[in-house]
Request: fold
Amino acid sequence: MAIESKSNILNKCMKGISVFFYGMLLLVLLFVLIGQFIFPDERDRTSTECQVFDTQWQQILENGDRIDVCVPGKIPAKWGEKVSIVTTLPEKVYSSETICFRSIWQDVEVYIDGELRQSYSTKDSRPFGKNSAFRCIFVELEESDAGKEMIYQFTSESKYAGTMKKVYIGDRSSIWFYLMGVYGVRAIVSLFLLMLSFFCIIICLVYFIAYKKILPLSYLIWTLFLCALWMMSEIEFRQVIFRNISSLSNVTYWCLMLLPIPMSLYMNSIQKKRYEKLYSLVTIYAVVVFVVGTLLQVFDVVQFVQQLPFVHFGLIFAIICIVATIIMDICKRHIKDYFAVGLGICGMLVSAIFEMAFYYINMNITLGTFLVVGLLFLLAMAIIKTGQDLLDIEKEKQKAIMAKDAQTKFLANMSHEIRTPINAVIGMNEMILRENEDETIRGYAENIQSASNMLLELINDILDMSKIESGELELVENTYYLASLIKDEQLLLTARVGGKAISTKVEVDSEIPAKLYGDELRIKQILTNLLSNAVKYTKQGSVTLKVYSKWIEKDTIMLSFSVKDTGIGIRKEDIPNMFDKFKRLELSRNRNVEGTGLGLNIVKQLVEQMHGKIKVESEYGKGSEFTISIPQKVMDKNPIGDMQQSIRESRAENRTSEKLFTAPDAIILAVDDNAMNLTLMKALLKRTKIQIDTATGGKACLELTKQKKYDMILMDHMMPELDGIETLKLLKADSDNINKDTVVIALTANAVEGSREMYLEYGFNDYFSKPIQADKLDELLIQYLPENLVHMEKKETEAAEETDTAEDDLNPVSQEISSELLAIDRTVGLSYCLNSEEIYKEVLTEFCTQVETYLPQLETALNEKNWAEYAIITHALKGNSLNIGASEFSKLSLEHELAGKEENTAFIYSKYGVYRAALIKLAEEVKAMI
Reply:
């Protein structure tokens, strides 16, 4: 309480001091006013006080005659003619007195009693031009000058020839004070405008840096800046402030010449470029006047002062255009978009008209005054409009954020809803492939697998695009073997080609470092997109993948991949648009080609995120070449050399054997509201012998966890009543639950970026995304199940040494060919030919032709140890033999295809002799049937 009391006393004390300060300040100001206007005048009044030198002047004519003239006023004179006027000085002159003449574009000489007392000319100091800039000329007087004759001679090659302004007498400081008192307001206003414009320019610059956008207000600010600079250059006492007033006088005209440009740009911007052509005429005229006028002045052809009508015409032209467009917008009801600015412009235009009118009737005391008032009014209205625009932008930004959040939620739901059935499709299909030996059914299952993977790729593309747009896509960099990456893409390319009449080629620079550091998966994604596109848009010819590199730093290379095809090509005008998302070129021509138009956009975004570049070269109708270059850190400078050897080394390091295991004593709980997913989970884990309990919801999960201790819980997120997160919270909060510390994995179809972090934050031990991949699930179980429960089983591969001895078995003579291997079931063959004898005969003939083609290719692949090509040929023979009804030979072809893919050289060398002999014999059998 004591502390609070002291605080209140202190607050009251500070408030009292504030009141005292403002009270005293008011009294001081009041006292100043009383002293100036009520108390007696104590100023010194001397004869040297500044006053107008109001005396009679006479012009001295050429013949010596004198005539009376009025000063200030206009004395008849031609351009370049020297005018001499004379007067008599007062009878009493003080030694500190001066007479001040104000010249306008004139050279001046002043004589007292025939003696030259003062002269003014900028002929030797001005950068260019024929006339001397405006200046106040002071003539010092002496007491002995009283009553003497004073001659003022001046000449000008401008419209100001013969023009005289007021003449002042008094001490120099008094005259300056007087001039500042009369014209100082304009100087202060111009200085204020300069400071205001600088401040606004900084604000607009900060806005541009922050948002990469130009505020329309910035153009108006430059208009204000030019007006302020023009006014500053024209003040009466400018010679006190600026060093070279000749150069400053040129600035006056340049400002006026440039004024229409920012004003037109401002109007064009706020009117949303509806009258861009009209304003372009205004700006072009202003540019021409500026350039031509400057050249004429510099080369002393036509002076700036003589060009004023053209300058003013540019201003009038701009005013007319602005007024006309505003009237048109009023008629079209567009004025509501910028009503405040329109009102401000009307006020500014009225002030500009008054300004020019007063200039031409020689009321120069108003120079800039009216225009400044109009400009400040316009600026106020423009700031109001800009404030409204910024508020609208902020509202739109908030709407965009809300839309983005809605999109993220939608993608999360979409991911879950679509991935859940895909999970079931892929999982069940996996069981068909594992357990069914019927070749026809396996063929159907492979088609299902291919279609499911394509659908999954599409979903992943959409999610990737969402991550890229939100800036949430992160690169996951690790050490990888380049040879393994290339091998995977080579197999993918082969699979994509399928039965198309396309040859494939992979060329790899043997000097590329073998081991690199980067995001291998994203590079694969890029190459997969490019290779898939190349195959899709190529009907015949070839697709070539080239891989090469160059060193850019001590431990970094620029890794380049080139994908070249002989497909349909791209038109030159379409190349700039080909990376737009959801953009497919020549849709009518490519209607039958699959795709969403997302692939290339994702490729470009990923390449740029990895600080790489992408280049496209294409000839319409002849093919295209896409080249990507990505910097990669080198982990091993040894060159890649032989691809096959490099692949074997990478596999030896990454995998000594397959991760096959059993865990018969492990007990896990799978929680999912989808019964099919639970069935799939049991099927996938059948070979592991893991004991699996299932629950179809959160409540059932909590009941089971109270009764039995589990080694792991796989928990789905999206479930009715209690979802996965709520179930986990209740499980962790129950101190009596025997599974409160059990490992819980979030098993969900939500694959949006940031999902893993979210689940970890909620308390899950890890996150696993559907569709369930058997090998990934195995890795997860091995990682989180207790080590004592997991029994690893290594699938031993044949020793490499056996490969050499197996080559002796290539002799087909020593191999025995079973009759079943050569059996041809005519009924099966006819079933694949719509039971048409004619079609079946054509298929048999085609089989013989293909055997003649494939046999030498098979030999070449074997001799060159090109196992990818070996797999491709045996894959084709598998399908072709099944089509004629040779089911057993088709099965043998499948075994060789898989051996080729896995590079199981021991199997190939040991079985090749039988396979080759059987193929030749089978072809002979077929020929006999034709």
